[in-house]
Amino acid sequence: MDGKKLEYKGKEAMKEIERLTKNADEVQEGILREILSQNGETEYLKKFIGSKDNKQVSKFKSLVPAITYEDIQPYILRIANGEDSNLISADPITEMLCSSGTSGGEPKLMPSIAQDLDRRTFLYNLIMPIMNQYIPGLDEGKAMFLYFVKAEMSTPCGIPARTVLTSYYKSKHFKCRPKDPYNDFTSPDQAILCYDSNQSMYCQLLAALVYRHQVLRIGAVFASALLRAISFLQRNWQNMCHDIRTGQLNAMIIDVSCRSALSNILSTLNLDSDIVADEIEEICGRSSWKGIICQLWPKAKYIEAVVTGSMSQYIPALEYYSEGRLPLICTMYASSECYFGVNLKPLSPPDEVSFTLLPNMAYFEFIPLGANGTFLMDLDEEQFVPQSKLVDLVHVRLGYYYELVVTTFSGLYRYRIGDVLQVSGFHNKAPQFRFICRRNVVLSIDNDKTNEKDLHRSITLAKKLLEPHQALLVEYTSYADASSVPGHYVLYWEIVHSHSIVNKDVNVEAQVVEECCIAIEEELDYIYRRCRTNDKSIGPLEIRLVKPGTFEALMDLLISQGGSINQYKTPRCIISNDSALQLLNSSIKASYFSPREPSWNA
Asked: Which residue numbers delimit the GH3 middle domain (predicted)?
């Protein structure tokens, strides 16, 4: 595709964003009418609004309840077991999308129809036109994006069950995509589509090293996956240099398609192979890997990955490996249930990232949670939400917090996503949102309810106490331990030497970690501190220090249990997973408790 055609496509994409956002209210009403017209005769909708008529929209808004997965699960399982898709969707359910299962709770099956892939592709096709407005010349090199698939399962009646990213990478939309210099990947499709994540990672990183002087952007879906890749490279760079020098792929790669693709890439080096291998050996052999990303890929202009919400934990490590020289960019907001919107200001700092919800992706509504400084989390996921409380897309208010609710073409009606968002602005009529947290990830012992945002904020402040001791918190998770009375919060911390993130252990004095314990408690909310200090219904907070590499082992465990390497996010709270707790507890180096009670005023 020539440059003029690509430029035209980019301009048309930006015009489409303007059209959609200027007419957000009309587009949303049209989407809802289209969904109801298409699916109005399904068993689920008829239960609430009866047969199709000209009052469907008003009936929908007044009669259809906001639901959670437990409400729609019986219908999904009936379809998975062989009943007709018209239980919830007029179009055939072509696949079930497995949620990552690492944002709290177990994996869930989300219904998907063929046209959903068109919507996801539409959103993907907006990313480069947006990026080109801020960073020129991205068509003059390659993108080092680390993508992975996971082996599929099938429902009892044979419907494929897979992650949303596996669905996309295996679709014709990805595999048969037209040649596009803006999406020229270092990773061959054969490596991306390899089910063995170790072979896939090895081949993708090897290819990225071969093309190192052509790489203009680096990324993965989540920041955690990118850091896992760096850890993998630390263990395997010598083997990769040997492959480059000899032109022969390591014997550990047994996937035939991967071997063929990587052998072809290695053959392009010819007489330059020794030079390339020498350069990489010199860089990777240095005592410090600070700035390694910029050294290995010197032309890279930015890093693309999700670094919002709990992923912000990984920002210090990414900045260490890039020496803070590369912008960290979040391009889009999506989930297994639905793709939502895009970041129209991609160079915004991670803590200022906002996503513009595109009104043609689904019908969006919102449950109000609070205004400006008052972030309310007292509405349980199981609690009934009156239909009158829901707010539509164009009527949300600046500064207010909301829980996102979606209605899709594939059979989710007023489905509570569980994401808490704050309105940060508007693009034309379309609101822009900051992602705050997942509302169903909480610690609770008594009357307390600590959400992901508050936990992360308190840990972010407390971990500063480690800095004077050359210690860095690289990962954490939590657990509400009710095995004793009173129960207490347990935090698992992995700490390494701050000047050598390469899994180098560090010893921290007990008093320092104990002060971290109390610093966290001081930052938790009023109810927690009351329960802890006045009611004595919560015991002292505990930090359990674990050995370096523990959280990588946790990731391996959760992926083996059905998670996806693409979608993996370290669970900030361990719920009902005995094997995860066993792994964490088997890696404990030391354990410390708060030395005193936090302050509390009646």
From this structure: 355-438
